[in-house]
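Sequence only, no structure available. Ideas?
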Amino acid sequence: MREIYEQGIAGGQATFETEAPSWEAWDAAHLDGHRLVAVEGDAVLGWAALSPVSSRCVYAGVAEDSVYVAAKAQGRGVGKALLGELVERAEQDGIWTVQAGIFPENEASIALHRGCGFRVVGVRARIGRRNGEWKDVVLMERRSPKW
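Reply:
I predicted one. Tokens follow.
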């Protein structure tokens, strides 16, 4: 999983992070029961997880997704399978909104999220810097039809 995350970091289109966190930091930041790994044989093809957006109780049903697919597995439906299952499990666990922040140039991730029922809420212009460059983030969300 770490290797796949590092591929995403190196590509420059997946995250503001510049290095992968320790397991302890990653574990503390992601919700138990909402962590998926796609495997084929002994190879990890991708992973997906949810993080809480806030510690405030009013936002208990809102989470942010992370979906990362190994370079060798991209274009094979791995991301769609992971995100689809993540959304389904979120709904079953009372999460009514899953959101994602995606760099505009990451067209594959935007298409993946649209394909899984997400809509664009807006663009957070120049919200942060990556390697000294200001970056926009497209905010997408999927509201559960159950809630």
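The chain has a mean pLDDT of 96.
Hope that gets you unstuck.
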